[in-house]
């Protein structure tokens, strides 16, 4: 029987109930799934010596040492999109497939970004906090603006950006621009969106929503220099990865009035420290890394975790779209990439 291990069962993005369900289905497919929680590479190595597949509900440290120390390991499966905690080059050299789930929650991400934007524009959290504190802040706070008069700037125009474009451009009549050097000609024909440089995105946008992966090039790209170029009444929204924003610089920009609002679902450190200045800021609308959460996304997540691992172990094949370390040659004999 094949051996698989969830190495971060308590991360919180996949319930224990759903993990137990996946475990039962795996058993029917000839796969024994263990639900563990390891905090370090050393713990993963010690606990996964017989593993054919490692599964991560969050961002477990799948380092070079982990990949080199587990000779049976054939695949690492993420229950999401990001793979920044996995050493992709080391996995490629080891012949280990790194699998993720592109597109599984794009509608949810777009809806959550919309909620953060409208919350800030309409002062919802500001009014809510006031009422709970005994204050009747009627018609106070920044004067709300109509989305049809604004420009939405999308940093990245991939899966979650497109439904957000549809909500704002087709729903509210908002002008949409994007900074994304990888937009295909086909996409340009389909969407009425202007492609701009990063500096133009900063200067022209009333709202910037981030939809890009975390890479060495994008890490903390939204920093003090970027905020200084943004409009003083603008807002930034992040449902992607926390480290795309320099959080210290963002806090200072909000304090200094360089930008007006921030809508954040992800942070440099999670959970967000209890002493973070963001918690006390009326200009910040915060949620706890839950933009992916929704009924359809959850169904997709569970089914993909079953289908992808079964495909690798029992069918010796996988679709290219689910491989994060492109160009890998699997250690599985006669393995096919479809």
SSE layout and pairings?
Layout (H helix, E strand, L loop, with lengths): L1 E5 L9 H13 L2 E5 L5 H7 L5 E4 L7 H6 L5 E4 L9 H7 L2 E3 L6 H16 L2 H9 L18 E5 L5 H12 L2 E5 L5 H6 L3 E2 L2 H7 L2 E4 L13 H6 L5 E4 L8 H10 L4 E4 L19 E3 L8 H21 L1 E2 L17 E2 L1
Parallel strand pairs: 1-2, 1-3, 3-4, 4-5, 6-7, 6-9, 7-8, 9-10, 10-11, 11-12, 13-14
Helix pairs in contact: 1-12, 5-7
Short description, anyone?
The chain is an alpha/beta fold and 338 residues long. Helix content is 36%, strand content 15%.
Describe this entry's structure for a reader.
- The protein has 338 residues and is an alpha/beta fold.
- The chain contains 12 helices and 14 strands.
- It has a 7-stranded parallel sheet, with helices on both faces. Strands 2-1-3-4-5 form a 5-stranded parallel sheet.
Query: Mean pLDDT, as a whole number?
Result: 97
CATH homologous superfamily descriptor of the largest domain: NAD(P)-binding Rossmann-like Domain
CA-based gyration radius: 22 Å
- Catalogue the unreliable spans: none
SSE topology string: EHEHEHEHEHHEHEHEHEHEHEEHEE
What global shape is seen? globular
Find the CATH topology of the largest domain.
Rossmann fold
Number of domains: 2
Instruction: Report on the biggest sheet.
Output: 7 strands, parallel
Distance between the termini: 25 Å
Strand order of the largest sheet: 8-7-6-9-10-11-12
The count of DSSP E runs of length 2 or more, i.e. the number of strands, is 14
- Percentage of residues in strands: 15-25%
Oligomer: single chain
Keywords:
338 residues, alpha/beta, Rossmann fold, 7-stranded parallel β-sheet, 5-stranded parallel β-sheet, 36% helix, 15% strand, globular
